[in-house]
Structure formats: C-alpha cells, structure tokens
Amino acid sequence: MFSLVFRAKADAQLSELLSASSRVTKAEAYRTNGDYQGVAVTFSGKAATAASFELYQNTPNPFKGETLVGFNLPVDDTVTLTVSDVTGRVLKLVRVDGVKGYNNVVLNANDLPAAGVLYYTVETSEYTATKKMIIIE
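Request: output the structure for the sequence above.
Response:
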C-alpha cells in the first residue's frame, strides 16, 4: 500500500486531472494469491460534498494582499458574502450568482478598511455560514 499527497497550484477538478493508465508501464496489480487485478483511480466523498452547502476557510489565512473565500453550493443560487469587523460593522458586501458546486470570491485587503480579526458570512436563500479571517499589515 502507498499514498500520494498532491498540492494544488490552480483551481481544477481532481477527478479530471488524475487517472491510472498504461502509457508508461502497464497499469496492473496482483492479489496476494497472484490473481491479476486492474488498477483505477476512484474519487469518493466528492459526490456528497458537491450536493451539500459548505463554507471553506479562506486561503491564505492570515493574509496580506488577497485571500480567496471558497464555498460549495448544492444548487445554483444568489450568494451574499459579507465581511464584518469584531463589532459587527459591515466592511464589504459582495453579491454573486453562485453555481452548483465549487465557487469562490477573491477579497483584497485594500478594500477592507481594517486589520486583525474579521468575520465573513456566506448567505444563500437556504443556508448561512460564518468563519473568521485575519488580515496582517
């Protein structure tokens, strides 16, 4: 048994980027008794994630300059992203037409007149979630 760790350098669907093929060497495996077994890459858990609402932690966090706020939608919906300071004062409001699946919004620190701990909330017609982010100077 072995495991592989991948680090994303761009937005993409992992299931469209990875596969097992016989291009370089024959993709095959064998059971302990010597029986031949095919090799395939399967992706589990993504179908369930794609069907549910989820707000992800912004990256990078803490940040200076720009940060990306990602979220998953079960259906197409209008999304409101609100950034607030610790007192609840709204610093930025962004409305986007979200699509089913993964979405993201890039926030620029220059557009947020604050530093330190802030909160971001993603709200749709059915769901609301809030997370904390940190701006460093």
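Residues 52-135 form a domain with the Immunoglobulin-like fold (CATH 2.60.40.1930).
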